[in-house]
Write a structure and sequence with these properties.
single chain, alpha/beta, five-stranded mixed beta sheet, 5 strands, globular
Length: 212
Amino acid sequence: MARSCPDLTHESALGARVAGVDEAGRGPLAGPVSAAAVVLDPGDLPAGLNDSKTLTAARRAALFDEIHAKAEVSLAWASVEEIDRLNIRAASLLAMRRAVEGLRSLPEAALIDGNACPEGLPCRGVTLVKGDALSLSVAAASIIAKVARDRVMVQLAAEFPGYGWEVNAGYPTASHRAALQHLGVTPHHRRSFRPVHNILLSDSLQRLDSNK
């Protein structure tokens, strides 16, 4: 059965000006979480726009530039410190709200990927599970958020080599987890995530034992 492509059905049902909103980076052990809000021009859509997960890295990068050229885009972040303080779900929702707030002019509605709507949105919020596969606006936001975050992780990889962030984007691959054990925890690791927390706890216990 052929996989359907996203379209503007949900946007059309909500109003004349709708922002698609998505985030990237909930699962990694390191780095911030990103979110994007995108208002597309229905008369000038980027060609080949689709869910970021279905696209190659090169195609995502090309669409990243094309979306910026043809749509209104806002990119926002929640830091590692906010992730550890709030939890990753709340930090992701915070980044989404910031993305909507960062648009040049407020949309009539924000179409949010997933099943949770950020509190305090400056407009109506509507959730859409698997929105990046159903809505072109959300698909565009998914591309912006992912490409931007991947680029940040490449920059951080140059500062902290050995963890493979330029390849794994901070996700808990076997090589990343092995590097954590060998090289230790960096300031960009999420201390509230179990693999990182367990290493910090083990180091703390070892220091206590050595001081006895």
